[in-house]
Amino acid sequence: MHRARETLLESELFGHVKGAFTGAVRDREGRFEAADGGTMFLDEIGEIPSPTQVKLLRFLQHKEFERVGETTTSKVDVRVIAATNRDLQAAVNAGAFREDLFYRLNAVRIKLPPLRERQEDIPLLAQHFLNKLGGTQDVAPQVMSALQAYTWKGNVRELENVIERALILSHGETIQMYHLPEEFQTLTEPAQRPMSLEEIEQQHIIKVLRVAKDLDEAAMLLGIDPATLWRKRKKYSL
Q: Across the chain, what does the average pLDDT equal?
């Protein structure tokens, strides 16, 4: 079963020839071939299985690939942009992600903080999703305060879903608190709610991770060992 999924992924990326596997009834070009001369975006790069990682590394190094079931080598010119919500350095350390592929992908790294750390972006994003979904309603100040106080474990996609739900339920000119999901109803006064010890610890770890050059330095600044830092990052989904 795992090999079948790997074959389908490799077929999606590199293409296949007729008869390469069950269901391959004709030749098919892959995404890299179709993107020749352009840019390819690979989302969730940390989820790619090990055998496919090897083939992807070869492609990134030489811009060469072979379709599934074929021995002829093809060459294309494609710029690759990859994204992940996983800590790839930790995955490398755990043996779950190839170190050479990691450094090949890590030429220019852009770290996008989670939405809960970018409260100032929420009004702009909320308005963007309102416009995208064709909404003309205003957002009540109390609603915006609740949106900015929420933890957003699902990040921007969760925000878009909440805005879409509010538009469906709202038939007036303003989105109100009762148009939001139940978990938002306790966030009416976010600025006055005292933080728990766990929340304070989480925020402090986030600040240290931002200034530290790596996880070892972050652990040293926090006064804990790297294993403890790893457990806390896992606990808080950092």
A: 88
What are 238's two structure tokens?
């950092």
Q: What is the mean pLDDT of residues 148-164?
A: 94
Q: Alpha-carbon distance 181 to 229, whole Å?
A: 33
| Dihedral angle sign, alpha carbons of residues 95, 98, 102, 105 | negative
Considering only CA atoms, which of 108, 44, 112, 55 is closest in space to residue 79? 108
Amino acid identity, residue 174?
Answer: T
Identify the residue whose tokens are 């590199």.
14
| 19, 40, 143 from 72: Cα distances, Å | 15, 22, 59
CA distance 81 to 173: 41
CB 91 within 8 A of CB 47: no
**C-alpha to C-alpha distance for 127 and 84, rounded to whole angstroms:** 26
pLDDT for position 211: 83
